Amino acid sequence: MGQQYQETKVIPFYSTNATSEINISALFNEMLLVSEHQLHAVGIDSQQMVAQGIGWVVTKYHLEIKRLPRINEKVTIVTEANSYNKFFCYRTFTLYDSQGQQLLHLLSNWVMMDIKKRSMIEVIPETMAKIGCEYSTDIWRFPRIQRFKYSQSPQIYRTRFFDIDVNGHVNNSIYLDWMLDSLGKDFLMQHQLQTLDIKYDREVAYGQSVQSFVQLEDNLISHHQILTDNKVNAQAQMQWQQRQK
Amino acid sequence: MGQQYQETKVIPFYSTNATSEINISALFNEMLLVSEHQLHAVGIDSQQMVAQGIGWVVTKYHLEIKRLPRINEKVTIVTEANSYNKFFCYRTFTLYDSQGQQLLHLLSNWVMMDIKKRSMIEVIPETMAKIGCEYSTDIWRFPRIQRFKYSQSPQIYRTRFFDIDVNGHVNNSIYLDWMLDSLGKDFLMQHQLQTLDIKYDREVAYGQSVQSFVQLEDNLISHHQILTDNKVNAQAQMQWQQRQK
User: How many Cβ pairs within 8 Å bridge chains A and B?
Assistant: First the structure.
């Protein structure tokens, strides 16, 4: 168990959409911001780490949603760097409503990268110690994202200037916008996301044309793949349910 | 003079880009959020107004920038509904850094709409009185956006699900993303925005294909026009200067 860190936040209008619920990309951004603040609170600055050539990278998320927060709703975000081993660090995020009811829970898998060499390095124990995160040989198992043969043509997205973060890379949350937008307004208005698994494989660069493949099964599982130049950048699998109205 | 209302905010990583400065669209969103909060503080809820068939709509902005706030910078946003007349309400926003230095100043022109009829209505004096905004016959003059003949082909943007707000319309700030992205990464990395004038003419709907026309003059004035189905949705004019580096 690591140290828990929490913040309370009101969901602003600009993070929501026609469902009145928070955008999934904005949800991930808010959770990441809270983990950034946990690091700041113990004197770790990810931007300084980047300047020293070391970057944190998320490789996998597993999200379970009971209910998404709505416009102007006050939520509490709790995060914890749970444990780390030689190459992986595991962090969880839990959102609660103002009554203390759990809204959603996110598992994340992080690696440390040598930014210049673009290769994984061993997790730095001193950094983990600062946030009370202990070494453990435990390997967390994330649900496997099934291989899928897409028969439908992809939706095309061009990477835009404002998709690029301060480090010059496409913000991880943008992939979720590409995947979800491909499902179309009718589907998104009529269904609620229950679980989401995403695996990040390769970065997308500015100006690249992105192919967003999506296919929906009868059991309301959607499969997603982001490709550039015939190489996979990210894959995802989501479980949906019909909205009660 | 209306009642001033202010909030302090730290600029999150996800609102910034490769320049380390805040995205212009995120900047407008943050300012609008503060004006929403001013309304909430006196018991006015724009969502309730919408439910009653009345909407606030911005028709014009004039922005003057000394410096844009940067990632993790703490800023204070001050807003004031300055005066209103029969059809227009004028609101200003000023951003200050943590030393109290002014970063930027925004003038905005608002109208009230009958949402069903899609037509302007007279400003409701009772609403204005609640935020200490007084009637005045003064008409604020905004810089005129010059007509411009575009010789270059437009950049095409498809309206996406997450561009649509809780009321089912494209968020006003998205137009700024379409306009600015069309200038390209090289230009945006090498230049700083000094002034921006934008005029909103018609709404864009979900799924529409947007033409973003842009043309840059030698004196670093950029002209912008957003068109759908050969009709103008928004026009803008921006003054830039070369970045000192």
Answer: 90
